[in-house]
From TrEMBL:
<dbReference type="Pfam" id="PF01368">
    <property type="entry name" value="DHH"/>
</dbReference>
<feature type="domain" description="DDH">
    <location>
        <begin position="16"/>
        <end position="153"/>
    </location>
</feature>
<dbReference type="Pfam" id="PF02272">
    <property type="entry name" value="DHHA1"/>
</dbReference>
<feature type="domain" description="DHHA1">
    <location>
        <begin position="226"/>
        <end position="310"/>
    </location>
</feature>
<dbReference type="InterPro" id="IPR001667">
    <property type="entry name" value="DDH_dom"/>
</dbReference>
<protein>
    <submittedName>
        <fullName>Bifunctional oligoribonuclease/PAP phosphatase NrnA</fullName>
        <ecNumber>3.1.3.7</ecNumber>
    </submittedName>
</protein>
<dbReference type="InterPro" id="IPR003156">
    <property type="entry name" value="DHHA1_dom"/>
</dbReference>
<keyword id="KW-0378">Hydrolase</keyword>
<dbReference type="GO" id="GO:0008441">
    <property type="term" value="F:3'(2'),5'-bisphosphate nucleotidase activity"/>
</dbReference>
<dbReference type="InterPro" id="IPR051319">
    <property type="entry name" value="Oligoribo/pAp-PDE_c-di-AMP_PDE"/>
</dbReference>
<dbReference type="InterPro" id="IPR038763">
    <property type="entry name" value="DHH_sf"/>
</dbReference>
Length: 316
C-alpha cells in the first residue's frame, strides 16, 4: 500500500469523516480520535468529524460528533479498526466521495477505494502512528494524539501482555509517552472496573466449565447482566477473566442478548480460533475473535469445536 496515496486524499479533502466499529474498544476510539486530531492539527481549516454511535463507558476517552447527512456529499470517509462493513458504526460511511479503510484485522472484507490493512500490527492505533511518522510533517502530532494512540495500543495488547506486542509496538509506546500526557493515570483508568463488573467476573469464575485439555466456556444469562445493572459494553470487562487461570488454554464466553442471539467472545493462548469464529457468523484475530450463537444447540457446537482445537493444540 502506498501511504502517500492516503496522505494525498487527506490533503485534497475539505471534509473528512472518520468511522470505527460498533461497540467501540480503546483501539477503535484511539485510532479514530488520534487520526482525527492529527489531521486537524495539520489542517485547522479542514472539517474533521468523528462518526459513530454510543461509546458507552469510554466517553472519557473520546466522544462523537453530530454529523449531518449533508456533510458526506463531497467528503473523504475513513474507516478505522473495522474489518467488515456490517460492523461499521453508522452505515452512512459509504455515502462519501472517497472511502479509505485502515485496519489491522484480517482483510476478509476488502472494501473501500483505498485499503491499508496490516494484520501483523498490534493495533490500528499503531498503524496511525506509523502513518504520522511516514507523513513527515503532512500530519500533526501532539499530546492529544499521543494519548489516544497510546490508549488504543494498551487496549489491544492487553497492557502489552498479548503476543501481538512486537518490538516495534514497544518503540511506538515509548515515543508516545514522551508527549505531555499522564500514561499512568490513563493506565489506571483503563484498568478500573466497577463493583458490578467485579461481581460479573466472580460469576464467570463460579460457573466456568473447564475440560481436561483446557477448553473453557461460560454462559452469561441476560438476567445476570440486568440484575447487576450492566450495559453490554460493560460486560466486556469479563472477557479476559478465564485467561488468568493456568489450566485454561482457550475459552468462549456466551453473553445472552436482549434483542439478538448470544454474543460469543473467543480467546486463546495458542490455538487459532478465528476460523471457528468465521464458521459461526464472526471473525477476528487468530487469538481473539467474536462470533454469534443462535441457540443452545449452537453454543454446544462451539464448545465441542473449541475442545477439538484445544485437544489438537495440546497434542502437538
Amino acid at each position: 500500500m502506498n501511504l502517500d496515496a492516503i496522505l494525498d486524499q487527506i490533503e485534497a479533502a475539505d471534509t473528512i469523516i472518520i468511522h470505527r466499529h460498533v461497540n467501540p474498544d480503546p483501539d477503535a476510539l484511539g485510532s479514530q480520535g488520534g487520526l482525527g486530531a492529527s489531521i486537524q492539527a495539520a489542517y485547522p481549516q479542514k472539517t474533521v468529524l468523528l462518526a459513530g454511535g454510543d461509546v458507552g463507558n469510554l466517553d472519557w476517552l473520546s466522544t462523537m460528533d453530530d454529523v449531518p447527512d449533508s456533510a458526506y456529499a463531497q467528503a473523504l470517509v475513513i474507516t478505522v479498526d473495522t474489518a467488515d462493513t456490517p460492523r461499521v458504526s453508522d452505515q452512512r460511511f459509504n455515502s462519501g466521495k472517497f472511502l479509505i479503510k485502515i485496519d489491522h484485522h484480517p482483510n476478509d472484507d476488502d472494501y473501500g477505494d483505498l485499503t491499508w490493512v496490516v494484520p501483523e500490527a498490534s493495533s490500528t492505533s499503531e498503524l496511525i502512528y506509523d502513518l504520522i511518522q511516514h507523513a513527515a510533517g503532512r500530519l500533526g502530532f501532539n499530546a492529544a494524539v499521543a494519548r489516544l494512540l497510546y490508549a488504543g495500543i494498551v487496549g489491544d495488547t492487553g497492557r502489552f501482555l498479548f503476543n501481538n506486542t512486537s518490538a516495534h509496538t514497544l518503540e511506538v509506546a515509548a515515543a508516545l509517552i514522551q508527549e505531555d500526557f499522564d500514561p499512568t493515570a490513563l493506565n489506571n483508568r483503563m484498568n478500573q472496573i466497577s463493583l458490578a463488573q467485579a461481581k460479573l467476573q466472580s460469576y464467570v469464575f463460579d460457573h466456568l466449565q473447564v475440560t481436561a485439555h483446557g477448553a473453557a466456556s461460560v454462559v452469561i444469562p441476560l438476567s445476570v447482566v440486568q440484575t447487576l445493572g450492566l450495559t453490554s459494553d460493560q460486560v466486556h470487562a469479563a472477557v479476559g477473566t478465564p485467561g488468568r487461570l493456568g489450566e485454561v488454554v482457550a475459552w468462549a464466553i456466551f453473553v445472552e442478548q436482549a434483542d439478538a442471539p448470544y454474543r460469543v467472545n473467543l480467546r486463546s493462548k495458542g490455538p487459532i480460533i478465528n476460523t471457528l469464529a468465521k464458521a459461526h457468523h464472526g471473525g477476528g484475530h487468530p487469538l481473539a475473535s467474536g462470533a454469534k450463537a443462535q441457540d443452545q444447540s449452537e453454543i454446544a457446537a462451539i464448545q465441542t469445536e473449541l475442545e477439538t482445537l484445544v485437544t489438537q493444540f495440546v497434542a502437538q
